[in-house]
Every structure is written in C-alpha cells, then in structure tokens.
Amino acid sequence: MKKKFLLAAAICCLVGNLCAQVTLSGKVTDKEYGEPLVGVNIRVDNSLAGSTTNGKGEFSISNLPEGKHVLSFTYVGFTPLHYTAQGSEKNIRIAMEQSYNNIGQVVVTGTGTHRRMTDSPVPVSVITAKEISNANVSTLEDALVKLSPNISSYTNGMGTTMSLNGINEDYVLILENGKRLAGEDRYTRINVANIKRIEVLNGAASALYGSDAIGGVINIITDDAKNTINVSSYTHYSSEGRWTEALNADVNAGKLSSYTSYQRLQAGSWQHNHIDENGNETGKPTSVGFYSNSVNQRFVFNATDKLSFYVRGTYYDNKTRRPQDATYFTKSKDKYVEKDAYTYNLKHETYTYGAGMKYMINRTAYIDAEFYSDNFSSDYVYFKKTGDYMPGDAVTRKKVNYYNGNVKGIFRVGSRNRVSVGMEYVNEHLNSESDNISFKNMYTMALYAQDEIKLMKNFQAVLGLRYIYNENFKNHATPNVALMYKLGGLNLRAAYAAGFRTPTLSQLYATDESKTASRYTVGNPNLKPEKNNFYSLNAEYNYRWLSVSVTGFINDVRDMINYRDLTEEEIASMGLSDKHAQFDQIRQRDNIDKAKTRGLSFNATASLGAGFRLSGGYTYLDTKAKQLKDDGTYKESPIDKSIRHMGNVNSQWEHNWGFYRLNVNLHGHLQGRRYSQSYGYAPKYQQWDLNTRHTFNLKSIILEPGVGIENLFDKIDDRPWNNNFSTLNPGRSVYASLSIRFKK
Fold it and tell me: Is the pTM for the entire model greater than 0.70?
C-alpha cells in the first residue's frame, strides 16, 4: 500500500510539473522600419534555454519551469534588450533599436565567462558574422587578415603561416568554441558559413588556456541556431578555380537538437613568373592547387532548462594538386640539371570527437565538464618513383593525437566576486615514419583559478593563476592580472600576463632530411620551455555613433626555440659523422633566441548616417629577435615574418526597400614590408575589394546573391619563383556568390 501511495505521489508531481511548464513566443522587429529581424539571439536568464528568430522574426521557447523569466535579446548592430515574463506568453513584441557601435557584443575569450565587450577587463576584439558576410570572404584566413589589423599571413610551398602582433602562429592558440585545434590546416578546417563570431585576444593567456597562448588566442564561435529547422547553403566562385561550397542543416526537436555542416574548398594552381631566382625556367607554380572536405556533426540533449549534454565529431581531409609533369633546374657540379619539380602530393586527414555536459546548479553557479580528442595525420602520397617509393605509396609524415579532459566551475561569491576554478589533463602522442619517430608521448596536468572582482562601482579586476605539471618539464605557474576603470563612455584597461610554452614533441624528437637542400635536422630532448611577459594598456571610448580604441603592448619572449648548426665536435659526439658525409649542414633545435615586440594598435568605427558606416584599424610593430652566436654574442634582426605597418579600411552603405536590402562594401588591406630571415624583405602590398550583397527576405527563405571584384587594382607579386612574396593573389578577378537560408 505504501509503495502504491509513493508511486501515485510521484506521478502527481510529474503531471504537475508538466502542466506548469511555461512557453514563451513572439516576434522581434527593427524599431525604425518595423521589419522582422532574422537571427536575433534570445537567452533565458538563470537557464541554459534559448532561441533565435526565424525568417519572419518569430521565436518560441518551451519547457520552462513555472515562474518569472527574464529574456535577453542580442543582435549585432542593435542595442541589447531585456523582457520579463511572469508566465506563458504567446504574443511578445520586441522592437530593437539600431546601435552605432558593437559594445553590446557578448564575448567569452577574455575571462572564460560571458561578458559584454564594454564590461570585459581583458580587451577582446570581435569579427562578427555580419562583417564576414559583408566582406564576402570564403576562408577563415581571409576573414582574419582582411578584418583585423593585428593579423597577417604568409604562404609558401609548405603552407600558410599566420602572425598575430608579430608573433607567428606557433605561439597563438586557435580554438573552436573554446576547444583547441591541434595539428595543421587549422584554418581550412573551419566552415566560414557557420561562424557566429571570431574573438581575438591580443596577448598572453596561459593562465586561462595553458601552453601555446604566449602570443594570443583566436577563438572561433560557431552558430547554434535554435530554430525548429535551419538549413543554409553558401556558394562562392572566383578565378583560378577557387570554389567554396558550404552546407548547414540544424534541426531542433524538443529536447534534442542536431547540427550538421559540410564544406568543400578547392583551387587550381597558378603561375606569375616562369623564371626562378637563377634565371632558369621553372614549372613550380606560385600557388599550388588543392581540395579539402570537412564534415561536422553535433548532437545536444537539453534534459532540463538547467542540464545539457552534447556529443560531437568531425572529419577533414586536404590534398594538394601538384602538377605531375613540372620540372625545374638545379645546379650540380657547376652546371644546371633538369629535375622533377614534384614527386608526391601532401595529404592531411583530421578527425575529432568529444562529449560534454553543463549543469546550472543555481543562478549563481554552474559546472562545465568535457572530453575531446583531435587527431591529425599527414602523408606523402607519391605519384612518381622516388628512391624506394613507387607511385601510389603513402608515407606517414606526421601523426598527432591530442586528448583533453577539462572540468570547470563558475561561482558567484557575494555581489562582488565571480570565481572560476578548474582542472585539465592533456595527453599528446606523436608518430612519424619520415622523421623516424615510432611513438612519443607527453602529458600535462593543470589546476587554474580566476577571480573577477568588482572593487568599486566603476572599477573591476581579474586575477588568475594556473599551476602546470608537465611530464618532461615539471612544475610551472603562470599568473595574470587585468584592471578596468569605467568613466562614462570611456574604458581604461591595464593587463599583465605571464606565458609558458612547452616544446612540441616534434621539436624534442623529430629528425628531418630536407628534400630541397643538403641539410639534416635532429631533435633536442634537452630543450627548455619558452616563457614570456606581456604588458598592455588600453583606452576605449564609445559614444552613440562613434567607437575608438587604442592599445599599446609589449611582449618579451625568452628561450625561443630556433635552429643551430652543430659543431664538428658535437656531430662526432652525437654519432652523426656518417650523416655529415652525406649532408652539407647538420643542425639542431635549441633555445637560442630572445624576442621583444612593442606595438600600438588603433581601431575606430563611425556611423555617418543614411546607411553609411566607416571603420578601420592600424597596427605599428617594432620587433626585435636576438639570436645567440657561437662567440656568445647576439645577432639582432626583426622577428621572422614580422611586418612593421599593417592596416585595414572598411566603408559600407546599406539600405532597405521592403523585403530587399542592398549592402555595398569597399575593403582595403594594407601592409608594409615583411621581413624573412631566409629571403630578406618582401615589398609592401595593398589590396582593395569591392563587394555587393543583395538580400531578399522571403519570410521562411532568405536569398542572398553577391557579386564583386577582388583585388580591384590588380596588385600581384610577379618576382621570380622562390622569393619572399608579399602576396600570392592571382590578380584582379570577379567573383559570384549565393547564400540560401531556410528557417522555420
């Protein structure tokens, strides 16, 4: 009898809860024009629930517990709004007012917690999905270089290298939704059509994110639309066979949501100059063709409005399309001999998987736990006989397995403190047939804590510390401090952070026989970690139609790893005499460099009225690298691949005519000379693009064709092959694009 009573009571409670569930629905419009706003983010305070508006500006949120709920509405280019509902409501009407700056943008990278840009003590710059769409870029690399004055890129036969504030990508942590991307091809793996925003943190962030964050953090936040059905397609085509196709399909069925995306990138090869640096004919193209495919799948289960689970997985492949009959001339015994330019293609594959959960304990605390793995492999795929290798043979160049487990809790302590604490475990594996590495392993454990303190009404601070134990490099600690004072529309910030980067498994153990030079490279298991101190001052002013930001920074890096030629005595003691007979140069990685970057960055955005908007940025860098010589003195030069002057300019005009909106965007990217330790300076360079985007809002379906001219003034670098090229752009070209979005 007692059991029956308990069962009946449980059923009654369950029925009561179901009956008490709250549903909120309504419509969001532009206050000035009354037009529906598509893609507005709606979040329920003290809950994990949320939604986005469809093509009609409509939204619906269900399965909320009974009681009062505060809805937060955010949309790029509009002032954030809040709405309080006491129970179920079906006809909520929200009219959002256009904003002339981006201070309402929510960011997470600076502090690891959600904050509006204007309230973040750590300065973070944001590239929005709207800015990416206006610039009509089709790759993450283009978005970063064109829309941030702090980032530049350099491409050669080995691939593309990015640089943030003069420090190359080896010292910059690249995240996707807060998860580290391992291996190579980190840029082409991202589906640009699925980007919600890109957050760029300039400066060391090792206390929060661990190793590799000496130079900064780039966090790509992907879209998480909450519509019942959200399907989109994006196609972009321009000269030299450059083609992008991206597909997204999101389905939300009650508590279960599915997010699927696919992207195809491809390009042909092109040549600017058929003569090499020695005046001989060369068949090596300026840019080598390639294709890549990436598939992403994520499932989310919202058990309650406070408990959520997810699983995700991705697959990516990339293969070069090198010309198989290309030849070049090389000097041998005082005469030039013709050889095959290429005998193999490079093939990269990556697969990732992960799972996690988030639980909101109460309105002041939640816990986030996750595990994920990023697995990268690179192969030489031969199409011509080379030594013992036959056409069709594949040799493993590198295989990297990265595993990460992380548990983090965020708690409000009183009215002035928000504390983040967590622990992280990382395990990395490396195999390489070509570099003679059968299996190497390294693990790192970390504990971290951060306190966001409201010292006074207008004065905030962030204090953080990360304790690290690495299998090879033992104990280390990295602190960070950030302060912000608000005075009306003026924000003043100061920050200090210590960085710590452990040598990679390749740097420790890899050997390499150069295929283009008589050079043999060995690893160095005695390498020390690289360390740095980063200081910055920032002033930001926001007033209605104007936003201005100025940042000064110093990045001082110690024990940088570079290559050092071995002496005759070292070669003999390491048993490399036989190799020395085969190669002219024997070298090893070592901690022989120091580097210092001093910079000043300026950004401004102004709304000029009548649909006109002007924005731009400029960065000045003074970089110095000091390399230790055999006599104990240092050789000084700029940091490799650094540029002293960089900037961008964006001007746009936008206007609505009912269901049709026109956006015209003129974009300019300018850079000074780029320094290379191997090739000297590349000449200064600028590129201007004219983009037009035509949006037809047909309620559930949105059509968005685009047409424009890339490299308007036909700026190319046609110097002989094997130079430090300022750009690999093929020249002026007309592009066409089409975006189709269906939201219900």
Answer: yes
